[in-house]
Amino acid sequence: MTSTEVPTSVPGSADATAAAAAAAGAAPTGPAAASALRGATAGSPATAPTMLGLDLRGRRVLVAGGGPVATRRVAAMLDGGADVLVVAPEVGDELRTLAVTGRVSLAERTVEPADTDGCWLVHACTGDAVADAMLAARADADRVFCVVSSDVSLGSARTPATASVAGMVLAVTSAGPADPRRVAAVRDSLVALVRGGQVDLGAVRRGEAGLPGGPGGDLSTEGLDGWAAAAAAGIAVAAAAAATVAASVSGATPTVEPYTSLLGGPVLHPGTVALVGGGTGEPDLMTVRARTLLAQADVVVADRLGPTSVLGELADDVEVVHVGKSPGIHQVPQPGINQILVDKAQSGLRVVRLKGGDPFLFGRGGEEVLACRAAGVPVQVVPGVTSAVAAPEVAGIPVTHRGTADGVHVVNGHGRLTDLDLAALATPGVTVVMLMGLAGIERIVAEALAGGTAASTPAAVVVRATLPGEQVVHAPLAEIADACHAAGLTSTGVIVVGEVAREGFLDPASPGRAAEAPPSRKQLRDAAARV
Ligand SMILES: C[S@@+](CC[C@H](N)C(=O)[O-])C[C@H]1O[C@@H](n2cnc3c(N)ncnc32)[C@H](O)[C@@H]1O
Q1: What domain count does the chain have?
Q2: Within a domain: 508
Q3: How far apart are CA 137 and CA 28, in angstroms?
Q4: Of the residues 389, 393, 434, 435, which should be mutated to test ligand 1's pocket, given the most ligand atoms within 8 Å of the CB?
Q5: Which of 117, 225, 325, 507 is catalytic?
C-alpha cells in the first residue's frame, strides 16, 4: 500500500499568515514568526524535518476541508486509527459515507479556530489559503502540529510519502520545499528495492542487524543507490518496523513468521526448499519472487549457469554450495544435490536451489521436487526465464511467428536425435531449439541432414545470451557448424533451426525479413461477407 504527499495547490502568503495569526489572537512571537522562520530556513540541514512515527489510535485529528485532498488525509488518518473530525461546509460522497457509517465525525460548516481544541494533529486543507493559515496559527498557539496542504511551509508538520512493505512503513519527505513528485519517486524506488529482495531482510530476521535506531545499528544503506540518491537530493527517509519484526529482533516469540509473511510476497520458511529459476544469467531478468526468496535464504545451492553474479551480493553468513561443474570443480551428481537440499532443510535452514533458466526445462527440477517430497521437505518452485525462448529472443529470433512458425520443439542436444526430433526438423512451420548441443553440433547437423532436413534450412546459434560475451551466428544448417568454429563459439549456447532463424528475420530492410502475416480468420470472414 502506498500513499503520496499531495502537491501544493493553493499558494499561501506571509501576509495571510500574519493576518490570520492576529485574528487567532496569537502572540507576535508565535505562529507567524515560527512560520516565517520555517519558510526562511527550510531546506537547510539544521532545520530538516524530524521524522516521527505517530501513534494516532483513538486520538482526535481535525481535518478541515471536504475536497479530494481532505478525503485522502482522512483515509490516512483512519488507517492509523485516529478519531477524525471533519469540518467543511461541503463534503464529497466518500466523506459523507464515512460520516453516515460513523467512521468520522462531520461538522458541515466553516472551520473555526476553536475546532483545534483537544486535537493532537490538524490537517488544514480547506482550499482557502487564508483559512488554512488561520488554522495553522491557532494550532501553533495551542502547540498542536498542523499540516497545511496549500503551503507546506506554513505548517508545523508535513505528510511524507509512505508505503507499507515487509512489516515496515517507509516514509520519505523533502528536506526543503515541498517536492511531492520527487519524494514519491524515491519512495517507489525504495519499495522496489525491498520488494525486489535487494535489501537483506534475512540479516535483520536473524538478529544480526538492528532495526533503524535500535541496538545493532541502522539498516545498512551501503550500495543502495536509491538511498544514496535520496540523501544527495535532500530527502529524508525513515523506516518504522511493525511489532512482529521488533519481536523477532528482541528475541520474543513472534506470533507470525517475521517479515516474510508481511512482505505481501513469497515466504521461505525454515526447513523448506525453494527451487528458483534464475533466468539466463543477467540478474535483472530474475523475477521479483526469485529475488525475494533469495533474500531470505540461509543456504543457496547454486549451478554454474544462471545469475551467478547475485551470489556475491549475499550476506557473508549465507552459505553458498556450488554444485555445478566449473574449471577445477567436479559437478555434484544429482543424488548428491538432492541429498544436500534435504539435509540442509532438515537441519532447519531456509534453502534456495538457484538454477539457470527455468527449473523444469532441462533443469532436473522435477527430480529435486520428488526428492524433497519423499523426505517430507516442503518445496516450492519459482518459474524462470528459460534460455530456450530468451536466447533466440535476444538474437531477434521469435520462436513462433504467425504465418512462419506455429510450433516449437525443444530438444536436449546432448544425445542422438530421435525420430520425433528429425520429424520436427524436417517440418516447415516448426522451430527446433536445442539446448546442450553446441559441443556436438557436427553430429547434430549430420543426423538432421541424413534425416531429411533441407541443407538450406536457416539455423542460428546464440551463446551467452544476455551475458557479457553474447554472440550470435546465422548460417544455413549445412554450414552452421563451420560458422560456429570460425566465430570461435565454444561457450554455453542454444541452436535454433527453422525459418525464424534466418538472418534479418525481424529487420524490415533485410532480404531475410519475415513474410507478410496471412490474413486472420476474422479478416477472412469479413472479406467473405463483403462478396
Ligand atoms: C542444463 S540446461 C539448463 C536449461 C535451463 N533450465 C533453461 O531453462 O534455460 C543448460 C543449457 O541451457 C542453455 N543455456 C543456458 N543459459 C544460456 C545462455 N545464457 N545463453 C545461451 N544458452 C544458455 C545452453 O544450451 C545450456 O547448455
Answers
A1: 4
A2: no
A3: 11
A4: 435
A5: 325
Evaluate whether residue 227 is within a structural domain.
Answer: yes
Select from 107, 121, 115, 114 the least CA-distant residue to 60. Answer: 121
- Reported as a single tens digit per residue, the pLDDT across 159-202 is 888 887 777 888 899 888 888 778 877 887 888 787 777 776 66
Ligand 1 centroid, distance to 350 Cα (angstroms): 26
* 140 labelled catalytic: no
Banded pLDDT at 519 (limits 50, 70, 90): confident
**Are 24 and 128 in the same domain?**
yes
CATH code, domain with 303: 3.40.1010.10
The C-alpha cell of 23 is what? 485574528
Q: What single-letter amino acid sits at 239?
A: A
148, 36: one domain? yes
- Structural domain span for residue 304: 266-385
Flag whether 292 is in a domain. yes
Residues 154 and 37 in one domain: yes
CA nearest 461: which of 364, 387, 358?
387
Is the CB–ligand 1 distance for residue 436 below 6 Å? yes
pLDDT in tens, 135-152: 999 999 999 999 998 888
In the residue annotation, 522 being an active-site residue is answered as: no
Based on the domain organization, do 30 and 133 belong to the same domain?
yes
**433 within ligand 1 shell (Cβ under 6 A):** no
Question: The C-alpha cell of 3 is what?
Answer: 500513499
Probe residue for ligand 1, chosen from 285, 432, 471, 492 as the CB with the greatest number of ligand atoms within 8 Å = 492
Considering only the C-alpha atoms of the chain, give the largest distance between any 2 of them, rounded to a whole number of Å: 100
Ligand 1 atom nearest to CA at 279:
9
